[in-house]
Task: structure prediction
Amino acid sequence: KLFFTDYGNAAKVERCDMDGMNRTWIVDSKIEQPTALALDLINKYVYWLDIYLESLEVVDYQGRRRQTITKGRQIRHLCGLAVFENYLYTVNSDNLSILRIHRYNGTDVQALARLDNAKEIRVFQKRTQAAVRSHACELDPSGMPGGCSHICLLSSSHKARTCRCRTGFILGSDGRSCK
Result:
């Protein structure tokens, strides 16, 4: 799945399949300007910052069990968001510090370090890296991913795929080759 935020005409947090199909709103009320998003891949939670409402919130992958982690003016200066164990990590753009926020007790906030021009933060952890298994976009005998001549996108499961073409090309009637 792909998770993303939008604060155009109607602010929301959404999810869809990797090929853009099955687009679903998971948060569409009491949200104004969601600017950063992080996933807890193990427990299946979505965290986001809303800089207009000055809140840090969480829901499960279906948009249920919504909770506010913390609220306050300090939120408007936060950018980037990452999850690692019991903490959320973010960057304070006002003083360029890395902050650690306890995700079950939002009042436990610590500044860890200062970085020049940091705008995003990522945590890489072996446990959250999916084990490689056979999938629909594996290279076929002629070296094409999923049999697609240009781009292969996983669909609703690891066994389904959609072929797409680079800009300037159109997908042929076979659904795999680009012309």
